[in-house]
Amino acid sequence: MLKIKQTLLPGVLRLTPRRFGDNRGYFCETWNKKRMAEHGITYDFVQDNQSLSQDVGTVRGLHYQAPPHAQTKLVRCGRGALLDVAVDIRKGSPTYGRWIAEELSAENGHQLLIPSGFLHGFVTLQPNTEILYKCTDFYDPDCDGAVRFDDPDIGVDWGIDTSNAVLSAKDQEAPLLKDFDNPFIWEGSQ
To answer: Which end of the chain is more exposed for a tag (fewer CB within 10 A), N or C?
Structure first.
């Protein structure tokens, strides 16, 4: 049975699909459009992504893709473990600027559903951590953006010494939340 937990950010959900195990290992259905629709989750995912981070303390984020190609993501860990972070950046939202973090690992099987209008990022907790995620729109480099992972106004607790974080040039140069042209507006329902 699929377990669904509403996080402290409305619309951001932790999903835990059921695993069927035996002496060989386990089988798990990570996405079933019909079964998800029974729970009110009706996203149409069009792209699957995978990344591998070799070093513990690798931070990727905080990323977004702006309209008209904003993405909802369903994130899971295929190998290793990571701390997955979502930050509400919908202007006017009662939870604007707040963040949540969930540990996703190959062992626990948790997934995080992150709607558009939220920043997304993660830090690796084990070497050679693999992240897999589905997206509701295709990647568009003109809509791609980031906000500083260590923005003091957001205050994400990454669980690491952030001065030693392994970062891309894009993430090192990302603006603060207060300095970026935010295209996301809260629509009042989530």
So the answer is: N
Q: With bands split at pLDDT 50, 70 and 90, how would you rate the model's confidence at 1?
A: confident
- CA dist 135 → 49, 109, 138 (Å): 8, 19, 7
Chain segment 58-109, per-residue pLDDT in tens: 999 999 999 999 999 999 999 999 999 999 999 999 999 999 999 999 999 9
Q: Are 69 and 143 in contact (CB under 8 A)?
A: yes
Rounded distance between C-alpha atoms, residue 164 and residue 154, angstroms:
19
Per-residue pLDDT of 156-165, as tens digits, reads 999 999 999 9
CA proximity to 72, closest of 150, 148, 7, 13: 13
Q: Is 139 a catalytic residue?
A: no
Instruction: Give the distance, in angstroms, between the CA of residue 177 and the centroid of all CA atoms in the same chain.
Output: 17
Q: What is the DSSP string of 126-174?
A: STTEEEEEEESS---GGGEEE--TT-TTT----SS-GGG-B--HHHHTP
d(CA 182, CA 138): 20
Which residue in the list 63, 64, 110, 120 is annotated as catalytic? 63
69 in active site? no
